[in-house]
Design a protein that fits this description.
The structure is a single chain. Helix content is about 50%, strand content about 25%. With about 260 residues, the chain is of the alpha+beta class. The protein has 2 domains: about 1-110; about 120-260, Protein Transport Mog1p, Chain A (3-Layer(aba) Sandwich). A 7-stranded antiparallel beta sheet has the order 3-4-5-9-8-7-6. Strands 1-2-10 form a 3-stranded antiparallel beta sheet.
Length: about 260
């Protein structure tokens, strides 16, 4: 009996020991499961935090890029507007400068016009015209031509009468029955004038012209003479009395360039 009781006790102790071991193992398993669960939760939490952090960084980067792009666009718009304004202002300045230059050029042109304020003398009967800057008073003068040839006829006119203060212009028409050249005409009928000499041959339009200077004209009035043919081979002699005054001589040369005969 005692042997059975001892075996029962051993069996009971074995059962208790097995039960305790099973309970301990279960508890260990539960602890392990709990630890695994906590580990997984921790990992998930860390992953979630990482994802949120990455998402936050992405959002910040996108916002920065968009903000920078918008800022650059605004700066570009401002710069373009500024450039356009500058160009417009420069164009306006250039336009204004051009207008000023044009006005300056016009004023210069007007001031440099050598014939500004001059009159144009015209005689339709004889077909002669020229510009002059005198008073314009006209009178007819019929003088002896100073030559013996009766075929030479002179009809004379005088423009301007303010002797010594303005150019006095006399013009005569000489018949030329022999159809002499201008130089021949001068040698034949005008070379008697002491102190005068031909100094230039030139053309006015299609007309041949010779010019004679008479600084010591016998009548005591220094002058310049111009000889030119009309369409009938008559000789027009235009005399400019300028008294060797530098300014009047300048006016003489300008007036000569405007002589026209038909």
């Amino acid at each position: 009996m005692q042997g059975d009781s001892s075996m029962n006790e051993k069996f009971q102790k074995g059962l208790q020991s097995s039960s305790s071991r099973i309970t301990l193992e279960k508890e260990n398993q539960d602890i392990k499961i709990n630890n695994d669960s906590k580990g997984k939760k921790r990992v998930m939490k860390l992953l979630l935090i990482a994802v949120l952090l990455i998402l936050f960084i992405v959002i910040v980067v996108i916002a920065y890029i968009l903000g920078k792009g918008k800022k650059n666009e605004e700066e570009s718009i401002i710069e373009t507007t500024t450039t356009t304004t500058t160009i417009t202002e420069e164009k306006e300045d250039e336009s204004g400068e051009s207008e000023e230059q044009n006005e300056s050029q016009q004023v210069t042109t007007i001031s440099e016009d050598p014939y500004a304020g001059w009159k144009t003398y015209t005689n339709n009967e004889w077909g002669i015209s020229f510009k002059h800057n005198g008073s314009g008073a006209e009178r007819e003068i019929i003088d002896n031509p100073g030559v013996s040839d009766p075929n030479v006829i002179r009809v004379g006119f005088e423009i301007n009468n303010d002797y010594g203060n303005e150019i006095v212009i006399r013009w005569d028409v000489w018949e030329n029955p022999e159809k002499l050249s201008l130089n021949e005409f001068y040698e034949t009928y005008q070379s008697y004038k002491t102190g005068c000499s031909v100094d230039k041959n030139f053309k006015i339009g299609d007309k041949t012209v010779i010019r004679a200077l008479c600084p010591n004209e016998p009548m005591g009035v220094p002058l310049t003479e111009v000889y030119i043919f009309d369409s009938q081979q008559r000789v027009f002699l235009i005399s400019y009395l300028h008294y060797m005054d530098e300014k009047l001589m300048e006016y003489t040369d300008l007036s000569i360039q405007t002589i026209k005969v038909q």
